[in-house]
């Protein structure tokens, strides 16, 4: 019997639907090498039972999971790390140097995420955030390499969506596990034209210039596949990378056009972003109703808008700092 939340991909990779928020929204990847395995991303505390079920289903002993690898410290990717580590006694947690301290002591992570979702929303979405013991954490700086039972993995620092983000290159599949760095591509939006893709400009560290640079670096590996957390593996990487670049630029342009102190700024960004995404979906040949598209996009439009506003505010602060003093001396 197969598990309905698992999909076996090529190259001994299993996509596990975490069940976070809705089906087909957030994936975790189980990479196998012989009878050993690693998890890329961890979902939230609530998702961990599914991962243990997946291990049982594929006959992988819990003591044979060598690594747990959250791509970055946003809680839909790393919230379950501590609980998963508690269940997998032999695993080491591999984390970006900027993410590791926040997984060891999640106090600030909890505070920051509660600010986005509110206290009640936080508890419902993320449950508990269990600290990871520091002695079990391996920091993976840019270029860090490890072998999962002989299967080489390489870690690439990948700022743009977040500064605490890395991507993992898997030579066996010639693919990258990209977390949020290759945007969002929901399978509901697939058409004869292929996948639909758009940027995720979540607060508070969205940085378009860094992101463009990161995409150049990832593409220099000529990857055949990108494994997205939201949601699943995509091929035809250069064409999708171009679409993602366009999406980043369009969202930046929308933010700049709405910049200023107007109390309407947020609503204006939200509306234009939604209009732009719906227009893109129509052009892409998506046959879902506008209402259904709106439902699938609602949380992303909200989070993306918050991220663009944070970016606008940061940009304004930096401009003020570098502006020369005016007036007479
Ligand atoms: Zn993220």
Provide a quick synopsis of the model.
With 329 residues, this protein is α/β, with parallel strands linked by helices. It is 40% helix and 19% strand.
Which SSEs are present, and which pair or pack?
Layout: E1 6-9, E2 13-17, E3 27-33, E4 36-40, H1 48-57, E5 65-69, H2 75-78, H3 81-87, E6 92-95, H4 100-104, H5 107-117, H6 119-126, E7 137-139, E8 145-148, E9 151-157, E10 166-170, E11 175-179, H7 208-219, E12 225-228, E13 232-234, H8 237-258, H9 265-284, H10 290-322
Parallel strand pairs: 4-5, 5-6, 6-7, 11-12
Antiparallel strand pairs: 1-2, 2-3, 3-4, 8-9, 9-10, 10-11, 12-13
This protein binds zinc ion.
Characterization of the model:
The protein has 329 residues and is α/β, with parallel strands linked by helices. The chain folds into 2 domains: 6-237, Ribonuclease Z/Hydroxyacylglutathione hydrolase-like (Metallo-beta-lactamase, Chain A), CATH 3.60.15.10; 243-319, no CATH class. Helix content is 40%, strand content 19%. Strands 1-2-3-4-5-6-7 form a 7-stranded mixed beta sheet. The chain has a 6-stranded mixed beta sheet with strand order 8-9-10-11-12-13, with no helix packed on it. Helix 9 (265-284) crosses helix 10 (290-322). The model has no long low-confidence stretch (mean pLDDT 95). The structure holds zinc ion. Zinc ion (ZN) binds at residues 72, 74, 77, 161-162, 180, 202. The site of zinc ion has 7 residues, from loops.
């Amino acid at each position: 019997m197969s598990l309905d939340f698992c999909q076996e991909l090529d190259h001994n990779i299993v996509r596990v639907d975490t069940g976070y928020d809705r089906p087909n929204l957030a994936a975790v990847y189980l990479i196998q090498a012989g009878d050993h395995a690693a998890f890329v991303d961890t979902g939230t505390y609530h998702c961990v039972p599914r991962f243990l079920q997946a291990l049982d289903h594929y006959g992988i002993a819990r003591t044979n999971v060598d690594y747990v690898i959250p791509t970055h410290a946003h809680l839909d990717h790393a919230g379950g790390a501590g609980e998963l580590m508690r269940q997998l006694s032999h695993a080491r947690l591999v984390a970006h140097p900027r993410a590791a301290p926040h997984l060891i002591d999640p106090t600030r992570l909890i505070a920051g995420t509660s600010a986005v979702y509110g206290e009640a929303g936080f508890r419902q979405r993320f449950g508990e955030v269990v600290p990871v013991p520091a002695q079990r954490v391996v920091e993976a700086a840019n270029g860090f390499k490890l072998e999962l039972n002989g299967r080489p993995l390489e870690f690439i620092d990948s700022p743009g969506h977040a500064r605490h983000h890395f991507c993992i290159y898997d030579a066996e599949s010639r693919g990258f596990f990209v977390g949020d760095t290759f945007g969002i591509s929901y399978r509901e939006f697939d058409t004869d034209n292929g996948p639909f893709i758009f940027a995720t400009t979540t607060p508070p560290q969205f940085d378009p210039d860094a992101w463009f640079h990161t995409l150049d670096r990832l593409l220099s590996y000529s990857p055949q596949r990108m494994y997205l957390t939201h949601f699943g593996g995509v091929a035809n990487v250069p064409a999708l990378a171009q679409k993602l670049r366009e999406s980043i630029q369009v969202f930046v342009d929308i933010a700049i056009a709405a910049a200023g102190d107007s109390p309407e700024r947020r609503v204006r960004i939200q509306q234009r972003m939604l209009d732009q995404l719906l227009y893109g979906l129509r052009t892409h040949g998506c046959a879902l109703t506008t209402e259904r598209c709106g439902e699938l996009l609602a949380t992303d439009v909200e989070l993306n808008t918050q991220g663009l506003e944070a970016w606008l505010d940061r940009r304004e602060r930096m401009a003020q700092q570098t502006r020369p003093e005016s007036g007479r001396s």
